Amino acid sequence: MCTQELLRTQRSHLVSLLGGGSVENFESMLDYLLSWDVLSWEDYENVSIKGQSLSSLARRLLDILNNKGGQSYVRLQDALQEVVKEHQPTEEYRPNESDPSDQQSTRL
Q1: What is the pLDDT of residue 3?
Q2: What is the mean pLDDT of residues 84-104?
Q3: Cys-Cys crosslink for 68: which of 39, 72, 75, 106, Cβ 3.0 to 4.6 Å?
Q4: Which of 30, 22, 35 is nearest to 47 (CA)?
Q5: What is the pLDDT of residues 46-92, one digit of tens each?
């Protein structure tokens, strides 16, 4: 299935996903697309208009990516994955030193 078909068939899901998140996450995703030359500066400005709903901006972004074709859909997926990775909590496991069972379970 080509990029345009994927964007068309998954449009409502993508609008919900992109429009239902935070402004910060949406802008972070745009930053990735801009830095990877998927979006031009003009494209970026067209999808970062203050006062517009995220759903409207998401639709505009999908229209722009649809017109670009090629790898734009793949790069959108990459940008979404990067944003998700950035916002996942990173916890480092440290065994409780006072509990000997924890110490034994971490030894090799």
Answers
A1: 61
A2: 60
A3: 72
A4: 30
A5: 998 888 899 999 999 999 998 988 788 889 999 999 998 887 765 55
Please provide the size of the chain in residues.
108
Residue the block writes with tokens 């997926």: 77
Contacts of 28 (CB under 8 A, 6+ apart): 82, 83, 86
Query: How far, in Å, CA of 21 to CA of 30, rounded?
Result: 13
Residue 28: its pLDDT value, please? 93
